[in-house]
Design the sequence.
């Protein structure tokens, strides 16, 4: 399967952007990496209270199949990290690398 790359923009509840970024970095990133995802970067837009990141997967399964395994994993459930506590909006776009 070809590599799948997603550009994700999350709008975070006011006052929770830094907390979200820390929990994402310390909990989500390590597990995503264990599941074979690659994090290509992450940025904070404090003015808009947005968290922007790029995630890729290049493996034997489709991105969606691998993503389902990630969400169904016991380690993900143990995080006690409900994105709806932080996110008020979410835009996910599949993108292609040109450079």
Sequence:
């Amino acid at each position: 399967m070809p590599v799948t790359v997603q550009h994700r923009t999350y709008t975070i509840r006011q006052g929770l952007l830094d907390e979200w970024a820390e929990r994402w970095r310390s909990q989500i990133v390590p597990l995503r990496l264990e599941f074979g995802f690659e994090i290509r970067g992450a940025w904070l837009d404090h003015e808009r209270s947005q968290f922007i990141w790029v995630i890729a997967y290049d493996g034997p399964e489709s991105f969606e199949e691998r993503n389902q395994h990630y969400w169904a994993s016991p380690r993900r459930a143990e995080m006690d990290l409900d994105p709806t506590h932080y996110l008020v909006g979410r835009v996910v776009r599949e993108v292609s690398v040109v450079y």
